Structures are given as structure tokens and as C-alpha cells.
Amino acid sequence: MASLLNPYLSFDGNARQALEFYKEVFGGLLRLNTYGDFGRPGTDNADKIMHGMLTSAAGFTLMGADMPPGMTYVPGNNFAVSVSGEDEPELRGYWEKLSGGGSVAVPLEKQMWGDVFGMCTDRFGIPWMVNINQPAD
Fold first, then answer.
1. Where is each PhnB-like domain found (predicted)?
2. pTM for this one?
3. Does CATH number 3.50.50.60 belong to domain 4-132?
4. d(C-alpha 45, C-alpha 120), whole Å
5. Where do the domains of the chain lie?
């Protein structure tokens, strides 16, 4: 699978409604995972979207989520550019270049869903997410 570059949108608690709306607009397959799906059941945000991905027949990919706990939604911080795929050396190279001279919010390391993931802001102030897909066991 080739690496993908796509927008990643953040929402203030209404990611499910927004992503369902975009599905109505663009069609395609919408996959949603909540914080509760990944070990946070019974919390205030258990039903909020931790990760959503819409893939359209036209080839569009749009990702989004509700702001993570502890992060404040402020218009202007509600997007990032996501780079994802399976080519670990290629994606680690992107990470090193993007994070160099910038700031790292989440180190590039294995996450609870099994992939290697990191978040950084480059030296120009653009937020990036890098996800290295891991083979399913």
C-alpha cells in the first residue's frame, strides 16, 4: 500500500455528526472508533470519536476526531495533515524531517491501537500526524 496524505479535522464533541454529514456529501465508507473502544469505557468521553475515516469511491480520504481529553478546541487548531502507510523507513524519514526544528506533541511510538503514531508541529506551524500501520496479528 502506498503512503497517504490527507487532511485530519478535529471537532468540539460533534465529530460523529460532522463525519456522517461528510459521508452524505461524498458517499463512501465511514469507519468510526470511540474512546470507549480503546480502553476508556465509563469516562465522560467514551462515546466521543477517537478516530474516524471516510473513504469515498472518488478516492477522497478524510479523517477526523473529537479533541482528545486535555486539549482545548480553539478554531485554528482543528486540523492537521495526516501521513500514513506501511513503509516504516519512508514514514520515519518524513517524521524526522517534519519534526526537526519543530515541536513534538506525541512521540512517534507504538500506541494502544497497535500502530506506531506521532504528532508534531513543523517549524512553519503546520500540525502533522504520522501513522505507521502495523500488520494485524
1. 6-130
2. 0.72
3. no
4. 24
5. 4-132
